[in-house]
Amino acid sequence: MQESYGVYSLLPPLIAIVLAIISRNVIVSLLIGVVSGYFIMEQSIVGALLESSKGIVSLFEKGWVVKTLVFAIFVGSIIELIQRSGGVDGFVHFLQKKKKLVTNKKEAELLAFFIGLAIFIESSITSLIAGAVSRPLTDKNGTSREKLAYICDSTAAPVCTMFPLNAWGALLLGLIGSQVEAGVITGEPIRLLGSALVFNFYALFSILLVLYTILAGIDFPAYTKVETPHLEFSEKEGDIFALIVPIASLLILVFVFLFITGGGDMLKGDGSTSVFAAVLGSIVISSLYYLVKKSMPAEEILPAIWRGAKTMVPIAAILIFAFAIGDVTVKMGTGIYMAHFANAILHPALLPAGIFLLSAIIAFSTGTSWGTFSIMMPIAITIATNTATGTETLLPLVIAAVISGGVFGDHASPISDTTIISAMAAGCDLIAHVKTQLPWALLAAFLSILFFLLFGYLAL
C-alpha cells in the first residue's frame, strides 16, 4: 500500500484552502500549499523549494496537463472572436428582438440552465459555453455574476455524470471495468454504471436546486462589479452564426475526436486530447467563416486570438498550481489516510452515506473529482463486496456515492479546476463564487445524505 503521512497529509490542501479564502489570492495560496506539502515530506526548506519546482515543472511532461492548459487558454480566443465578430450581438438580437425569447432576468437565467443541460460532452465546455453565451443577457437583466457562476457550475459536472456519454463516462467505466477484470465484482461495466446512476442523488438535487433558485427568483449577493455600458446590444443586429459556428464546431469536433481517439468507441476516447484538438479546430473553422462572411477584417483575426488567449493566462496559472497540489496529496497519501477507516467503522447500512462523505472530503481537499473517483471507486467496491449481506443492492449505491461525493467536494472546493473555470466563464471572482455557491451545494449534499441513508437501510 502507498505510504501515507497520516494527519499531516491533510495540511497542504487545508493550508491552501484557508489561505485562498482569507487572502483571495488563489495562486499564492496554492503555491504555499504545495511548498508546505514538500516541506513535510523533505523536512527541509531548501528541499521543499527544490522539490516544489521539480513537481511543477514535471507537470508539463504530462500530455493531459498541457492539453488542458492549451484548451483553457484558447477558449479565451474563441470567446474573443465571438464577441469581436458580432456573434454575441447577433445572439442577443435574435433572442430579445427577433424572437423575444429572453426579455427578463428569469428567462436569461433559464437560458444558461438549459445550455448547461444540453451540453454534456465535457464539464469545462459546458461551463464555458453557458457562461460566454448567457453572460451578456444575465448582465443586461440584472443577474449577479455569482449566480451565473452557480448555474454554470451546477449544470456542468452533475449533467456530465447523469449522462456519461463523455470522458467522465469513460473514466468511470474504466474504473469499474478494472474491478471486473480483477475479479472483485462480476457483470458488464456499462450495466453496473447504469444501475448506479439512478442513485446519483447529488447530481439530481444540484440540478433541481438550480432550477428552483431561478423559478423562485432567488438573488445571489453580487460581489463582482460589472460594467454594463458595453453590454447594450439591442441596437446591433450582429450575426448569430458568428456565435453558432464556433460553438457548434467545438462540440462536433469533441465528438469526432473522441470517436477517433477511442478507435471507433467514443466512451474509450481520450478526453484531454479531444478537447485540445477541438478548441484549435474550432478557432480555424471560425476564422475561415469570419473571412468568408467578412464578419471581421483579416488583419484583426490573429490579434483577437492572441488577445483572448492572454486573458486566460491567469486561469492557466491557477490550474497549474491546482494540479500541483493534487500531485502533492497523492504523494502524501491523503486519500488513503482518509479512506482506510471506512471498512472498520461503518455499519453496512451506513456505507453509502459514509462513502459519500469520505469522497466529498477527499475531493474538497484535493480539488479533483476524477482523482477522487480513482482513489475511492476501488475502495468502495471492495468494501461493498466484503459486506456480509446486501452486496448486490449495495454495489450500485456505493458506486453512486463515490460519484456524488466526488462531484460535491469538487463543487465546494476553491482549488477545483471546475470551480475555477465556472467562475472564469461567468466573469466573477473565484472566492465570491465559492462563498455564494456553498450554501446550495451543502443543501444538495444534505438531501443526498438523507437519501443514501434511506436507501442504505432499504438495501439490507
TrEMBL record:
It comes from the Bacteria. The chain crosses the membrane at residues 14-40, 64-82, 110-134, 155-177, 197-220, 240-260, 272-292, 304-325, 345-367, 440-459. Residues 159-456 form the Na+/H+ antiporter NhaC-like C-terminal domain. Keywords: Cell membrane, Membrane, Transmembrane, Transmembrane helix. InterPro entries: Na/H_Antiport_NhaC-like_C (IPR018461). It holds the Pfam family Na_H_antiporter. It is found in: Cell membrane. It is a multi-pass membrane protein. This is Tetracycline efflux Na+/H+ antiporter family transporter Tet(35). The lineage of its organism: Bacteria, Pseudomonadati, Campylobacterota, Epsilonproteobacteria, Campylobacterales.
